[in-house]
Design a protein that fits this description.
The chain has 71 residues and is mainly beta. It has one domain. It contains one helix and four strands. Strands 1, 2, 3 and 4 form a four-stranded mixed sheet that branches. Strand 1 and strand 2 form a beta hairpin. The radius of gyration is 20 Å and the shape is rod-shaped. 0% of the residues are buried.
Length: 71
């Protein structure tokens, strides 16, 4: 019923692809006595390349994570 497309046909239909980097940043929150006394961001860490459509305007993808530290 449906014809599967090979890679070249898919590129023509979708307009192509490009690869952009994916990074992660961790947001640290320091708690003391039930209150947040400090917070800071860790360094931006490279994870992998992600395949996206060629008309995607993003130059990078950043994933944010939160980590709670109790003192």
């Amino acid at each position: 019923m449906f014809k599967s497309l090979n890679q070249n046909e898919m590129l023509k239909v979708n307009g192509g692809v490009k690869y952009i980097p994916v990074y992660s940043i961790t947001h640290y929150k320091i708690h003391k006595g039930g209150k947040i006394i400090s917070s800071y961001y860790g360094p931006k860490t490279y994870i992998r390349l992600e395949c996206v459509a060629s008309n995607d305007s993003r130059t990078e993808i950043v994933k944010y994570y939160t980590k709670d530290l109790y003192v």
